Amino acid sequence: MAEFTRLQNCLALIRLRNPPVNAISTTVARGIKESLQKAITDDTVKAIVICGADGIFCAGADIREFKVHKTFDIQLGDIVDEIQRNKKPVVAAIQKLALGGGLELALGCHYRIAHAEAQVGFPEVTLGILPGARGTQLLPRLVGVPAALDLIISGRHISANEALKLGIIDKIVNSDPIEESIKFAQRISGQSSQELQMTSDMVADKSSALGPPKGYTSKATIEFFFYLTVPGLCCGM
Ligand SMILES: CC/C=C\CC(=O)SCCNC(=O)CCNC(=O)[C@H](O)C(C)(C)COP(=O)(O)OP(=O)(O)OC[C@H]1O[C@@H](n2cnc3c(N)ncnc32)[C@H](O)[C@@H]1OP(=O)(O)O
């Protein structure tokens, strides 16, 4: 599930809870969606923080459901779109792990604050799939195409430090990233909505050089990744 808490100072906290690694199940996705709706439609909420329970952000889609259905029937891309459409700033507080769909959720947020020991990555390739919830668009916008390809094709986890250098994470902390994210959200929620709008417009303008602001994994992208990742198809490389 995802717990919604209305904090003091005009903030809302959405906490993913699905032991042991807060994976995104159908129930968790529904909980995030409903919590976001509550936060967005409450005029007294000025900023939102998303975090995970028990010291871990999220290890991606719930592979227990994948084993049963052989597919992920979770519309995480819609949730990411909703965060990006929304004018209220959303901060991801990354403790320990943000993998797969968990990283896509964090990339959808406007800011990411991680603990120094945290790791992020896209392990989808190890399951024979690609990030399908905007990760293939959002990651290259932040880190450029070569670095994004490297992370998506290798499936490797990288440290918070490397993620900071690449631009995936905005800030690393040695203290509790949830507390830091709340403080940060409080600070930016004090800015006028005009300032926030100007900033998000500038970011959108800058990243538009990399194509449409949102979308889905195009057929060409899938074919390209397929070519690179299926042994025997990449002879000559
Ligand atoms: C929404 C659709 C969009 C996106 C698709 C994806 O997100 S695909 C990516 C899905 N995620 C993964 O593939 C991560 C797989 N897990 C791991 O790499 C490791 O388990 C992990 C998270 C790095 C933790 O490693 P560690 O060595 O610390 O522990 P262990 O492997 O023993 O796992 C601990 C328990 O967590 C369970 N678990 C791990 N990942 C998931 C998951 N994604 N969903 C559900 N459960 C997960 C694992 O089974 C262990 O459970 P236990 O009952 O203790 O055996």
From TrEMBL:
Task: Cite the entry's keywords alphabetically.
Answer: Isomerase, Lyase, Multifunctional enzyme
Leader sequence range is none
Q: Name one GO molecular function term.
A: enoyl-CoA hydratase activity
Q: Which Gene3D superfamilies match?
A: 2-enoyl-CoA Hydratase, Chain A, domain 1
Q: Which domain of life is it from?
A: Eukaryota
Name the Pfam families for this protein: ECH_1
- Catalytic function, reaction form: (3E)-hexenoyl-CoA = (2E)-hexenoyl-CoA; (3S)-hydroxyhexanoyl-CoA = (2E)-hexenoyl-CoA + H2O; (3S)-hydroxydecanoyl-CoA = (2E)-decenoyl-CoA + H2O; (3Z)-hexenoyl-CoA = (2E)-hexenoyl-CoA
Task: Write down the InterPro entries for this protein, in alphabetical order.
Answer: ClpP/crotonase-like_dom_sf, Enoyl-CoA_hydra/iso
Q: Which PANTHER family match?
A: 3-HYDROXYACYL-COA DEHYROGENASE, PEROXISOMAL BIFUNCTIONAL ENZYME
Q: Which family does it belong to?
A: In the C-terminal section; belongs to the 3-hydroxyacyl-CoA dehydrogenase family.
Q: Which protein is depicted?
A: Peroxisomal bifunctional enzyme
Native species: Bos taurus (Bovine)
**Gene name for this UniProt entry:** EHHADH
